[in-house]
Fold this protein.
Amino acid sequence: MDKPVIRVGIIGAGFVGSALVQLLTDSSRHAALLDAATGSIELVGVAVRDGSKPRPGIPAGILTTDAEALSAREDLDVLVEVVGGIEPARAYIESALRNGVSVVTANKALMADSGTALAQLAHEHGADLFYEAAVGGGIPILRALRSSLAGERINRVMGIVNGTTNFILSKMTSEGSDYAVALAEAQALGYAESDPTADVEAYDAAAKVQILSSLAFGTELVGEEISREGITRVRSIDVEFARRAGYVIKLLGVAERVGESGISRRVHPAMVPVDHPLASVHGAMNAVFVEGARSGPLMWLGQGAGGEPTATAVLGDVLDAARNRVSGRHDVPFTVDDTLHSFPAGELSSVFYISIDVLDRPGVLAAVAGIFGSNGVSIQSMEQSGFGDEARLSFLTHLAKTSDVEATVGDLAQLESVDSIGACIRVIDGGGQ
Amino acid sequence: MDKPVIRVGIIGAGFVGSALVQLLTDSSRHAALLDAATGSIELVGVAVRDGSKPRPGIPAGILTTDAEALSAREDLDVLVEVVGGIEPARAYIESALRNGVSVVTANKALMADSGTALAQLAHEHGADLFYEAAVGGGIPILRALRSSLAGERINRVMGIVNGTTNFILSKMTSEGSDYAVALAEAQALGYAESDPTADVEAYDAAAKVQILSSLAFGTELVGEEISREGITRVRSIDVEFARRAGYVIKLLGVAERVGESGISRRVHPAMVPVDHPLASVHGAMNAVFVEGARSGPLMWLGQGAGGEPTATAVLGDVLDAARNRVSGRHDVPFTVDDTLHSFPAGELSSVFYISIDVLDRPGVLAAVAGIFGSNGVSIQSMEQSGFGDEARLSFLTHLAKTSDVEATVGDLAQLESVDSIGACIRVIDGGGQ
């Protein structure tokens, strides 16, 4: 039987790109790929920056250093972009889409910045734009949101979507390490970069939250800033407090409905109950927890990074795009819901954990408690531990508005007897299990 | 813009069927459904057994008691079968498929029995046959295997795919209950039927393992018997032993590659390390853990039963089938891999936990240990606890062949001083986290 031929070009041959070439050229998987793609896949070009580097496994005849020319080829069916960054990745993708060539990308930064416009461009030219690998590496969560849960009203998406920070927090939990020690270990093992800002300050997770939100709720992907707090202020003492109280601290990316048309999108450390499925996501693993109106709680777990897992997700997209080419259709992009508005982060209520180091003097506790009270934040429990002239006060609040808690922290910082204020960590409720 | 109309019929209006009708007729979700289906969905018939029962929420004009006639309607696009059982469900499905009508079913028993033939029939008539809800209720695991992981070589699928038994084992774990007490509680809460055989003897889980295996590996769905052991022999003492050793006992459905062309499919209680993602699947939740060659470990978790979660999965299938109708294509069924063979359960090796009650007499331990030795089963650790004239011996073996362990148990049962033999529980290794 004659199978149509799907011509694929790849821009980028780093960990993901070269793992993908291997997957596409593995002869033992040929029949399975042919089946899944409903056509035979021909790799026609791989664009790399440095043409002089040896590229074992990539047929020499298809190597090129001219990514621009590859992205402009009209005879492509699918262009894969795995270089990352905003430019020139965007130019490559636009060029392909304008030719009606479907695009598969792993580029979370670009999708968070310009996803809506690119999806629209794809739609106008009858092409697909898939980006499964942009969130959760090898975890097929975006396709699930797009397809399996298409008819479902989703109320909340919560994810551990950054492996670096989860590795660091897991180390702090399992070994009692300080943040700096755990970060250094992550760097030594290659889980964290020498400049870890994008991970530990949650820029990476924030981009992923924007992408998840667009598919779950129909929020636009236009590079909006969302509420973002990293893990640099989480201390081993906080991790220990959490443990005693039956929680683990995780960096959570959250997108959820608030009221009829509000969507809150944010990233922050949170205390997760130990029996919540997200609490058992260890090391560099990722997981996304979805609460649907009818489906109930659902969770996806897997490796959030790494060349091979990510390449597997990219391959799934390539096969989807190939099937669509063969049947002459393309997927409708996520629908933007214009009635939604961004719910202000300060207006959200939560239970908070706050820990403060104070000089151990008479009247300090009364002064601190007074500040909570005057800001309308009511205290659920307090724990005091002394060391030398200092005391550490750890508070759990009742449900309190984020802006009130922020005002409390601001006032506390003015108190002479307050030495330092640790992280304000939101406490998450159970997982519906 | 004119959207094509997708005509849907539903056979069965129990929990799942009526929840589906609600989802399809919810006017607030109309736009989302239209978008996802790329056509407008018209519910043209709902077949019920008892026409005299009031059916709130189902428009009277489309109610019928003639399921046969509904399944034979040539003007349908999609027939949904949610009555369960082998016959007459099979006849309804065959009738629809022969007309080229796509079928969505939640019928695990029928799919495990005749899935290959039905998928073939669908393919011949250019129709789709989807059955997402047959495994894991609302968890979209089958679509992930079919689509996201289509290009991946899967090595092992392990699942907690029966909510009833997981509820019982969770109770035994969290409260130290005996099996009988936990079962009675499950029955009182409606998690277990008055005759719990299908659940506790793992028939239900076995059917699901067959379906998972067909999608992961390409084994046939022809009603084959697979190795099956339920939870009726698990005692609270075993659960407690597991806890002390860092494990929890779960009923696992497993399908895995053994060697080049062997596939082992089985259901049995197993000790799962507490830090394995499957260990944190509590209560009536379900989860499926997949190990791919490149993707690494992946897990899906969610509600394995219940009208609304299951209806959500069915709806996802209906929307998929609708999209395919609109674009005039159908999905290729899973491919049967003829080179695979069923790996004999007895030949598999594992670490086993075995616990025996013996009369506390001199020489008993030597006799028992001798039987292990003569069957080639080597002991890793032993724990003895006495109570009155009896002693309980709990063994962990080294890696041992299942048939050797079975022979050991057979010989032990012959010993006069052996009072009773508990469950043989396999010990599972870590989750790659």
